[in-house]
Amino acid sequence: xxxxxxxxxxxxxxxxxxxxxxxxxxxxxxxxxxxxxxxxxxxxxxxxxxxxxxxxxxxxxxxxxxxxxxxxxxxxxxxxxxxxxxxxxxxxxxxxxxxxxxxxxxxxxxxxxxxxxxxxxxxxxxxxxxxxxxxxxxxxxxxxxxxxxxxxxxxxxxxxxxxxxxxxxxxxxxxxxxxxxxxxxxxxxxxxxxxxxxxxxxxxxxxxxxxx
Length: 212
Hints:
Elements: H1 10-50, E1 55-59, H2 62-75, E2 87-89, H3 94-104, H4 111-117, E3 123-127, H5 134-145, E4 149-155, E5 167-171, H6 176-200, H7 203-210
Parallel strand pairs: 1-2, 1-3, 3-4, 4-5
């Protein structure tokens, strides 16, 4: 059996250490400052799902991947076996995306899908590290008009998204990879907390359900 090669370049190892340390600090800061917002996002999502509403998610590039990842956690399962939950990533239908982009422009690729699928009481999650993606902004604006609950995952102060999100989860950093790492960590906690409210502690959302 050949001996496994082990890297040891000092500069590369220093890069790894710096990235790991920066990510650990940022993760701790984010959750210390925004735990209540993550919980609020999960609580409102659980109530919406319990009432028969759904989650729509959108983003570009890596954020599109996050939207699809999180939709998959809801539709299949996260950590516990439970019924599938209604979630749709608006980033996955290439025919819809290219038709809208070709006929009306890329800025409307999510907005027109929200117009087709979104209803009052649904959840729209917009993911943009800059907070300024025009297609995500257009979807959030329409969601607000339709009385949907809007959640934003972004960086820094939230950019233009801040004005259109009921809950804004803004990672206090400018480095896109680190922002995206915190986004998926927050997304995983969101999934876990939604399961908690729906299947382990429904009493915590009962008053909101009884209000209807």
